[in-house]
Amino acid sequence: MQKELTYKDIIDSLKTEKDFLCSKYGVIEIGLFGSYVSGTPNKDSDIDLLIEFKEPRFEYIAGLTIYLEKKFNKNIEIIRKSKNIKNRFIQAIENQVIYV
Q1: Catalytic annotation present for 46
Q2: Judging by beta carbons within 10 Å of its beta carbon (0-12, 13-18, 19+), is residue 96 exposed, middle or buried?
Q3: Does any domain span residue 91?
Q4: Would you say residue 1 lies in a domain?
Q5: Which of the four, 8, 48, 50, 99, has the lowest number of CB atoms within 10 Å?
Q6: Would residue 12 show up in a list of annotated catalytic residues for this protein?
Q7: Which domain holds residue 35?
Q8: What parts of the chain have a pLDDT lower than 70?
Q9: How many angstroms separate the CA atoms of 41 and 61, rounded?
Q10: Which burial class, exposed, middle or buried, applies to 64 when counting CB atoms under 10 A from its CB (0-12, 13-18, 19+)?
Q11: Total domains present in the chain
């Protein structure tokens, strides 16, 4: 039986791979939010990430999503962070996000 994924597992893995994610997918900043941060994940929970990219290119976002879904065996939800986007939704995420 596979061990249940934890907040610490996700954070540790993202920290370990941050340099790779930056060079391969143009990640500037990556943070975890949602059920794993609030301590309420279940077996069907996805992994919610707030990510700032050097360039918001489709191939970066799609490639990173596929890579992380294979790595964690979970659906990945990426919200793109941008200096130009400051709506209530992003502000609510930033109140709970844990950056790597």
Answers
A1: yes
A2: middle
A3: yes
A4: no
A5: 8
A6: no
A7: 7-99
A8: 1-2, 84-86
A9: 24
A10: buried
A11: 1
